[in-house]
Amino acid sequence: MTAPFRTLTPDAQYHDDALVEREAAAGQLNLVTLRERGAEAIPDAEWEQAEAILLWHECPITPALVPKLKKCRIIVRCGAGFDHVELKATGAAGIPVCNVPDYGTSEVADHAIALMLTLRRNIVQYNDRIRTDPVAGFDWSGPATTIRRIRGQKLGIVGLGRIGTATALRAKAFGLEVMAYDPGLAWGQEIALGVTRMADLHDMLGKADIVSLHAPLTEETRHIIDAAALAAMKPEAVLVNTARGALIDLGALHAALKENRIAAAGLDVLPKEPPEADHPLMRDFHDQPDWIRGRLVVTPHAAWYSIESQTDARRKAVETAIAFLRDGELRNCVNGAYLKR
């Protein structure tokens, strides 16, 4: 019988002793589970001995790290995004990188809708007022800067992949009119979904009452929501991001909110996680001056999470690793264009 493949998880996002992974591996993997927030915290020997890596989102695989992966045969991202993995360097080293794209589609779409509803129904401000003063705060008529009727509003989706599509379908159930900007979308897909295809991003931003981001992070999409994009949005518009933090220029967003050039924002992701406490937006979010109250909601990169989705990501990552290590089968390879065989 083949000896178990030594498999490193450098940044595990669970607190048990890899119970899901052990069950899925059925003795075929020798699991090493760490919970670090950076590759530099992990001894070189662990990288050098790993035959497979199950990677979450807190340990970037950089060009400088790749030479240490002397025995590595596959890297599996326990999730969909892979912008923190250097695809060219891993490909040149002959290491395939795979992801798990189908574990939390429902959860992220649900979270995006939840952020929209939270802001459009003024949930945070109402809650905070009543918590501060249960009697005086029990008043619906106070400042409610973000409240609008949901039905009939226009939602602009940036990126109509799996999660963007799931968000669009949910939004339609609420009576939202859905537009989508996605240059890579197959022609006719918008017809099948009953949404309006938009050829120009800024044109869509100018029409949308709510904008929801569902694009991957690439060099083309980094800061796709910049000062110019925010200037194109309506003053009463809401911006939601459950995709990747760097899709938004955080400084430009801070200025747009402070100057009342957009109404509100709901963020599940940030350019740097955990965030920099001294960033102007995060500092004001912490201090809560009057202008920001109820207009910014932040959650800790949690849109993907449920017990079910976490279990799916863990199990499918193990299955993907084993399929290649044992049978040579590549599932969802994302660096195939650079992969040296």
UniProtKB/TrEMBL annotation:
Statement: the UniProt record of this protein carries the keyword Oxidoreductase: yes
GO MF, one annotated term: oxidoreductase activity, acting on the CH-OH group of donors, NAD or NADP as acceptor
Listed GO biological process terms: regulation of transcription by RNA polymerase II
Residues annotated as domain D-isomer specific 2-hydroxyacid dehydrogenase catalytic: 46-335
Domain D-isomer specific 2-hydroxyacid dehydrogenase NAD-binding: 113-303
Keywords from the named record: Oxidoreductase
Disulfide bond in keyword set: no
Superkingdom field: Bacteria
Family from the record: Belongs to the D-isomer specific 2-hydroxyacid dehydrogenase family.
UniProt-recorded name of the protein: Dehydrogenase, D-3-phosphoglycerate dehydrogenase-like protein
Species, as recorded: Oceanibaculum indicum P24
Classification lineage: Bacteria, Pseudomonadati, Pseudomonadota, Alphaproteobacteria, Rhodospirillales
